[in-house]
Design goal:
Naphthalene 1,2-dioxygenase Alpha Subunit, Chain A, domain 1, Rieske Iron-sulfur Protein, 8-stranded antiparallel sheet, globular, 18 strands, 11 helices, 391 residues, alpha+beta, 2 domains, single chain, 4-stranded antiparallel sheet
């Protein structure tokens, strides 16, 4: 058992799982310790289903991009059959990091070191001079055993999920509780209508804090009156309800008064099968560990987190609309711009708050904090998930 794990265990990590009235939050070290982050990388970011990007970012066959997940180098690409694949970004020969930047793969991924080359399915297909000058094969070497190491992956709502350790339940089983919950709002046919906006469909924010603070904050509406006074003026704290998914894989909040205040006569088209009696409902769910989702009758967003270190996080917002016309035509451009500004403003208001929590965790007097037994249930849900999974 590592020293840092002994420290957080000594601070009564198991108390996090107590009923909310007698529980406390995760110890400071879970946010301030670089050593602890190594535990989290293994137990959470390698062992669980984790988001590493969106399929829309590599829309065409041959598109490829590198991504580092807390230092683990991976390749995300679209193969010749239009399938998203994820590989460890390392040559099987001498361990060179193959991709350094986004690129278009015409035929092969070629290692700059000795020119070993792989196709888009990860198969090792070229080994120049392997058996000596101008001898590119060897009976002593089986190429099939040195392919790129593929990472288990799946795509859901355009999000690319990976399970690096290949030890989780199937993705279908993993996502079923949330997928089933949202069936009451939109059908599978509706989901297929989602189109990413090219002009006002993405922004990113940088937060000088641990990734967990973004999830904790997103789970609850308790902070609305003070952090989001504009939003709270028409979507008040009392109009929200809690979401606590079981089994414990997601948590969040919903509103019963979704009514976007966008100027103009035009209105975004809605998902055709959205129930009439739920038109004012929107839900905001954090799917553990690192993606926050926003479901509305007329648009959907995914706000996924890229943890860089124990005290620095990149936040990526992806916005989708109902059909190509709503997502990219001139007719709805002004509405898209307004919606983009709205969400960027709201999410930006949270950044200073979560950075302030990072600074506060340097206090030796803080013991993980308390929870409101009424207002903090979804956040407590997330703390329990972390505490359970780092053991």
């Amino acid at each position: 058992m590592s020293e840092i794990y002994k420290i957080i265990k000594k601070k009564k990590l198991d108390v996090v799982n107590n009923p909310i009235e007698t529980s406390h939050g995760l110890p400071n070290e879970c946010y301030t310790s670089e050593a602890y982050t190594k535990i989290e990388r293994k137990k959470i970011f390698e062992d669980k289903w984790v988001v590493v990007g969106v399929a829309n970012s590599i829309p065409n066959i041959g598109d490829a991009k590198p991504f580092d997940l807390l230092g683990i180098p991976i390749i995300i690409l679209r193969d010749k059959k239009n399938k998203i694949r994820v590989f460890h970004n390392v040559c099987s020969h001498r361990g060179y990091k193959l991709l350094q930047k986004n690129c278009k793969i015409k035929n092969v991924i070629r290692c700059p070191y000795h020119s070993w080359s792989y196709n888009t399915e990860g198969k090792l297909i070229a080994t120049p001079h392997l058996g000596g000058m101008n001898k590119h094969n060897s009976v002593k070497f089986d190429k099939s055993k040195s392919n790129l190491k593929e990472i288990r992956s799946d795509v859901w709502l355009d999000l690319i999920f990976v399970n690096i350790s290949n030890n989780e339940i199937s993705f279908d089983k993993y996502i079923k509780p949330l997928s089933d919950r949202w069936e009451k709002f939109w059908s599978i046919k509706d989901r297929k209508l989602m189109v990413h906006s090219d002009d006002y469909g993405y922004f990113n924010l940088n937060a000088k804090c641990n990734w967990k603070f973004a999830i904790e904050n997103y789970c609850e509406s308790y902070h609305l009156p003070w952090v989001h006074p504009g939003l709270n003026s028409y979507s008040k704290i009392e109009d929200h309800y809690h979401i606590q998914g079981l089994p414990n894989r997601f948590a969040g909040q919903g509103t019963t008064v979704y009514n976007p205040r966008l100027k103009g006569k035009e209105k975004f088209p809605c998902f055709p099968n959205w129930p009439k009696n739920k038109e004012k409902i929107a839900e905001y769910v954090a799917l553990f560990p690192n993606v926050m989702l926003g479901l509305h009758k007329d648009h959907f967003y995914s706000y996924w987190l890229e943890p860089i270190s124990h005290k620095y996080t990149k936040e990526h917002m992806e916005i989708y609309y109902v059909g190509e016309k709503a997502a990219n035509s001139k007719k709805f451009k002004n509405l898209r711009k307004q919606n983009y500004k709205l969400w960027k403003s709201v999410q930006s208001e949270d950044v200073g708050i979560i950075e302030g929590m990072q600074e506060g965790r340097n206090s030796p007097a803080y013991n993980g904090g308390n929870f409101s037994p009424v207002m903090d249930n979804p956040t407590h849900h997330f703390h329990k998930w972390v505490a359970t999974n780092i053991v």
